[in-house]
Structures are given as structure tokens and as C-alpha cells.
Amino acid sequence: MGERMECGIWCGPSDAGMSESSVAAFVERAARAGVTALIMEVKGGHGLLRYPSREFAEAVEPGYEGFDMPAHLLRRCREAGIQLHAWFIDYYEGEQGPAYRRHPEWAAADADGRPTCGTTLRGSRYGAVWMCPARRPGYTDQWLVPLIREFAERYEVDAVHHDYIRYPGDLAPDTYCFCDDCLREMPRWAGFVSDAIPDEPFYHELYDRPYLESHWEQSPRVLPPNWDRLPRAMQSRFLLHGGFFQGGLNDLDHFFYSYRTHWVTEFAREVREAVRQVRPQMGFSAAVFKNPIHSGRFIGQDWRTFAPYVEHCMPMDYRDHFPGTFEQYLTLLAEAIGRQKVWARDYRTLWPGFAVNFLYKEEAEAALPQAQWPHEKLRRTVAAIRAAGTGRLCIFCAGQLTAYGMWDTLQEALA
Ligand SMILES: [Zn+2]
Question: What mean pLDDT value characterizes the chain?
């Protein structure tokens, strides 16, 4: 009881404002509340940057060419003894963002070759563009990694923070990626065909075991003989629903999901290596989903495998990622953190995260004015994470604390 917790807080450029004095006031407010790490969004989901990048000048959000927000923020954080993590929205881009406009072929594509933006979600056009993590050369190695490397060269922040380090999930999670590169490379990556002897089916000599799948180790040609004649939609369907053996189980989805987790983790590795070359001491943190076994299957994010490349694990244990009542949330949250301690054991630190707004599901549904939302829920959630014993927590987000008038409550809860 009463032990001081480390507290990270996700924040956006509007929290810091566009002047030195507004940045100073924001850092002072956070420090007074007991916040020990600011996680500031520097690359947004629209694909634009909140710092005066030289190598990616076309991606700089208007207003940030002349105001070096991270530099001012970093100076104030150092004075206040607060860590600064630079938050990047990794694979989620804007339709009007320069990466997609210049290179539409870098976008993740469905079986018909279409990017995510034109898809309908909850009755509306989706609009945003998910980029393909696997394609080389592509968004990962031509854009995202050099962009983060340049940032690391310019700003001595404590960590680069990954978010959206994954495939899309709110759209059908099994639909991406079947871009031209993935259709060509997934079968090679998975060893479904030999580069050296591509046309030989390599049937087993004997089939002398009772189980067809027990003849796997000679690596037969998995692709059907008519592969090159199949339209892309049928190739995609085979890669997700086909079988390793003709006449065997429909088990190729295993390789599809493995391919996706491989490339997401590969990005974590590549960017780590690129940053190490320019600033060896810089760390990495990541916002991840609450269960890596589930997110590995659904969005290519098995974050247990990030540990060699990311020191600080920040699971988004938001209430809307759990079912049930507020009381059930607190119970399930404690259970989840117990599992996360095991999954994150190879990370240096674990910061269970909660979102303020989602605590107030009932109040929002009842259209209760925000001024009347019970601060008790915030206090009890902080207490539940404290009781789980990680010594750290993370909160989404600064703007909500301001909007709901809850900074003082956070200060009490952390004290
Ligand atoms: Zn792809």
C-alpha cells in the first residue's frame, strides 16, 4: 500500500499546444499529478508528423514546420524528471497521407486487390488505409523504419512507442494481406514451393504412415499445379482455406497467421536495429492488445515475440476490450494482468493501461453530464492495477482527464 507507482499517459499534440508556454504548462500539470512518462503522438493515424522532419518534409502536418514540439517537450520533460516516449501510429495511414498517395501499392489489399479505405464499416466508408507490413521494398523499409530512424537521430527521447503495430482487426481480420507481394512471397516464405525445382510435386515415396499429415517433413509442393493460372481471389482463398496436402486437412490458415505475426515482429526487429545504429541507448515501448495469443491470431500481433526489440510493454486493458459490468471489468482486469506478467516476463517493464472514457460506459449511455461522472471509478481502477503489483500503469489519455476534470483525482489516486 502507498508505494509510488510509475504512471505513463498517452497524449496528443493538442494537449501540448503550439507554443513553448503551453508545452511547459502541460508538462507541469502532468508532473503535479504524479505522471512519470509522457507518451506523445508524433505520427498520427492520418499519416502526418508533428515535428519538422527533413527527410519526410511532405508528411509534416501544417504548423509543425516552424514549431519543434518534441524539442520543447523533451526539454520540459527533462527539467521535470519525466520520461518522454514518442508515439508512432505504425501501420495505419491516411488516404490523403503522402505515403499512400505516392505509393498506393504499399497498402494492404484484400483478395480482390483492394485497399482498406473503400470498405464499409458500420454503414460508413472506412476511409483509413492499412499498410502491408510484409512487402519489401515497401512501406516498412522505405517509409516507416527510415522515418523513425530520422526521429531517433534528432531527438534523444527515452523511447519510441509503437502503436497499431499489427494488421487491421475492426475490418474482417482474415482479409489482409493479399497484395501482389504477399501473393508472390507468402508461398515462398512458407516453403510451399521450391525455387530450385518449382514444378516437381514431390509426392512421398511411401505414404506408409497411417496419417497423411505425418508425411510433411519432405516439404512437398503445396501449391496446386494450376497455381499460375488462378485469379488472385482464388489464390488468396487457397492460401487462407487450402490444405498443405491435397486430400488433407484445410490447415493453410496456420501458415497465413504465422506469416503475419512474422512480419509484424520483423518490423519491430528492423526498426530496433536501425535506431540502434544512430542512438544505441534509446528504448522502445509498445501499446499492445490484452491477450497476445488472441491478437496473434486475429491481427498478427503476438507481442510475446517483441521482447528482444521492445523493453516496455503497455497492454491496452481498456474496459471496452472486456465484456460485462464495471465490477466484472475490475475482476477480469486483475486476471488479465496476472497473465500479462507471464507473457511479458522477457520485457523490462509492464505498464497495464486503461482508458478513462470507457470506464464511463453506463454514464455515457445515460447521457449523464461529464461533470457528474463518478471519480470513484478512476480511483478504483488505479487501485486495482496497483494491487496487481506491476508497480506501473498507463492511462489513455491526457485529453480525457482534462475534459472530465479528473487530473486532481489522478493525483490523489497515485499519491
Ligand atoms: Zn501484402
Answer: 97
The terminus-to-terminus CA distance of the chain in angstroms comes to 10
Residue 385 has pLDDT above 60, yes or no: yes
CA of 132 to the centre of ligand 1 (A): 4
How far apart CA 364 and CA 319 sit, in angstroms, is: 13
pLDDT at 2 over 80: no
What is the number of alpha carbons within 13 Å of residue 375 lying toward its C-beta? 14
The per-residue pLDDT for 4 is 85
Summarised one tens digit per residue, pLDDT across range 15-45 is: 999 999 999 999 999 999 999 999 999 999 9
> What are the residue ranges spanned by the domains of the chain?
6-109+127-170+258-414
d(CA 296, CA 176): 14
Distance CA 296, CA 261 (A): 6
Secondary element (H or E) of residue 375: helix 375-388
What does the block give as the cell for 249? 486437412
The stretch 66-94 carries a mean pLDDT of 98
Superfamily of domain covering 6-109+127-170+258-414: Glycosidases (3.20.20.80)
Residue 140 Cα, ligand 1 centroid: separation in angstroms? 11
Q: Grid cell 499498410 — which residue? A: 131
Angle between helices 232-241 and 180-189 (to 10 degrees): 40
**Gap from CA of 82 to ligand 1 centroid (Å):** 39
Distance CA 275, CA 261 (A): 21
